[in-house]
Amino acid sequence: MLTRLTALFVALFAFAAPAYAAQCGGNFQTFLGQIAREAQGAGVSQGVINQAFAGLSPDPEVLAFDKRQRYTFRKSFEDYARTRVIPARVKRAKALMQRHAQLLSRIERQFGVPREILMAVWTLETDNGGGDMGKRPVVRTLATLAHDCRRTELFQGELIAALQILQRGDLPLSDLKGAFAGEIGQTQFLPSSYIKYGVDYDGNGHVDLRHSVPDVLASTANLLKTNGWRAGAPYTEGTENFQVMREWNRSEIYRKTIVLFAQQLQE
């Protein structure tokens, strides 16, 4: 999985997070009790909460990882892209683009996002679902980060969104696994984005961003479209669509890498 500077872009979304009342720090179980009341107010049943919070304790590895993060790329664009836009990845992405040609055409018509951009994101994030999507229990990860007081409102919101994913039946608790900031699935959505942008594109009644390629690609396109992607317009550096990709990742180097990968897929 591409290192997304996990503590990273989530902090930059803090302005969008609603206010939550649970008090960070202090006794962890007391904190979970307060979160449970907030979650119930957001439509999560007591049964789902009990299952998700059973035996829960803070994860010290998550806190240690979060505290040592750096929020900027240390490499130049050239050095960074050189290790990620590689022939084996491009070759696999081209093969998958052919395999999913009909699906990608349908998504392009509906959302206006070019297939090469979707394939670039899908490849860079998790090697098209074959790489590391993260193995950490999302509820424990987010409860740990929410209990820590540095960005508690943000992660309280993400924790409640994770509980809403369980409430909707999109993923079972055993499959709600993710990375060090709680990102889920083949293109690494935070739970709030999962709830806001997730699309049931295979029509099975659930948004499954871990296993369903149609859901993964359509949801990724939906995120970009909802945030202003202009169909048929250029997406290179300096364009409006390049700016829209800030909603995917704020790093300019990362977005330039997406563009470079997409251009390789056109060759």
Describe the structure.
This protein has two domains: 7-69 and 135-182, Helicase, Ruva Protein, domain 3, CATH 1.10.8.350; 77-132 and 196-266, Lysozyme (Orthogonal Bundle), CATH 1.10.530.10. It has 14 helices and two strands, in the order ααααααααβααβαααα. It has a two-stranded antiparallel sheet with strand order 1-2. It is mainly alpha-helical. The chain has helices spanning 7-11, 28-41, 46-53, 60-67, 77-82, 87-99, 101-111, 115-126, 138-147, 152-168, 191-197, 213-226, 240-244, 252-266, and strands at 136-137, 177-178. It is 54% helix and 1% strand.
Count the domains: 2
Overall SS class? mainly alpha
Largest sheet: 2 strands, antiparallel
CATH architecture of the largest domain: Orthogonal Bundle
- Write down the CATH class of the largest domain: Mainly Alpha
Form type? globular
What Rg is obtained from the alpha carbons, in whole angstroms? 18 Å
Mean pLDDT score: 91
Please tally the helical runs, counting DSSP H or I stretches of 4 or more residues.
14
- Report the uncertain regions: 1-17
List the secondary-structure elements in sequence, H or E: HHHHHHHHEHHEHHHH
CATH topology of the largest domain: Lysozyme
Helix content: 40-55%
Termini gap = 25 Å
Q: Order the strands across the largest sheet as they lie in space.
A: 1-2
Count of strand segments = 2
Protein name: Lytic murein transglycosylase
Signal peptide: 1-21
Domain Transglycosylase SLT: 28-235
Keywords: Signal
